[in-house]
Amino acid sequence: FAMLAVLAVFPSIALFISIHADSAIAQESNESSAELPVMKMTDLIRGTGESLELLLRGKLIYESKPTAKATVTITLDYNGRRQSFEATVQDDLFEVWLPINRVPWYVVFVHASDEAGNLGRRSAIPRSELRNLARTGLNLPMRLPDRVIEVRTRYEGQPISGSSVRIETDSGESYGVTNSAGVAEIGVFREETLYSIDGWNDAGYLGGFSFHSKVSYDRNSDQHDVNLVRTTSRTVKVVTVDGKPVPNVALQVHASTPEPNYEWFRAPENAKVMTDENGVAVWPWYPMLDKVHEYVELQNDQWRISDMSASTDTYLLTLKPVSKRKRITGYVQS
Questions:
Q1: DSSP character for 5?
Q2: pLDDT tens across 271-328, in order?
């Protein structure tokens, strides 16, 4: 009972599972969709406190014989902070031990792909279902995508090749790179709902849009343009209330076009900066626009923002330590 109670109080984190083929070695044919054996919770958890881990198992279900060995990567996401874990794969089965008490849980996303072009998707799995999913295992059907989204990156009307492109749906994120014509083609499933499309490149160009913005974009269209803008750097200085620098603090700067539309520029994949020993960090993805709506997101559990001010090219954040919480154990008597 005590172990079940611990698992039932997962706070909120997003878990993304991406599977990519890395070999053309043929596997043994396994056309059966038989479910994995149900396991006891006592066999699926190990450790205590912050070191507590949960075993997640899965099986890739093919209509015919799979032709490639799969690599499985599980990525924990909490408020934009991500940590990836490599799963152990044997034939079409995979498993991985996940830390469940270090950060809060939210939902689970499952992505799969192989060299033959097959994809597997699973929409957001709420935390209330995660414990049972660990017991029963995850069966993931693999099939070819039935929709291809064409994304064209442009700067001042000209195509930009070599740009990274990201499509976010209700099943997670998919990535591609534009060709010499500035076009990337990314496969999805028709039942997925498009959330946003973004693009960026190493030359410092950034752009994108959300289907939830005040500007109208057609989710049913298979062709979309991403207009890129040039970016510059923005310095962030982080201090305590008594003026001392705060090192080793991760943060992101969020920026958008001004009102009334507020088109947000999403940062590139895994983009974040860390303050140095002087409490200074430089954010390199600040859009060069006449007017920008902006704020700084602190990605640290030990500090909170007490005050923030901005000059032409610098933010000054004043932080206060977060009050430490203590866990109290006791008994309820009638």
A1: H
A2: 889 999 999 999 999 999 999 998 998 888 889 999 999 888 899 999 999 887 677 7
pLDDT at 81: 64
Per-residue pLDDT tens for 94-131? Answer: 898 988 887 776 777 778 888 888 888 776 777 778 78
Structure tokens at 286: 């600040």
Amino acid occupying residue 146: D
Token pair, residue 120, equals: 């597997």
pTM: 0.79
Cα–Cα dist 248/254, whole Å: 19
Residue 86 near residue 96, CB atoms below 8 Å: yes
Distance CA 46, CA 314 (A): 46
For 250, left (φ over 0), alpha (ψ -120 to 50), or beta?
A: beta
127 strand-pairing partners: none
CB-CB contact of 53 with 271 (8 Å): no
N- to C-terminal Cα distance for the chain?
19
Strand-strand pairing, 107-113 and 119-126:
antiparallel
Q: What letter would DSSP give residue 270?
A: T
3-class SS string, 96-151: EEEECCCCCCCEEEEEEECCCCCEEEEEEEEHHHHHHHHHHCEEEECECCCEEEEE
Of 137, 125, 114, give the one whose Cα is nearest residue 59.
Answer: 137
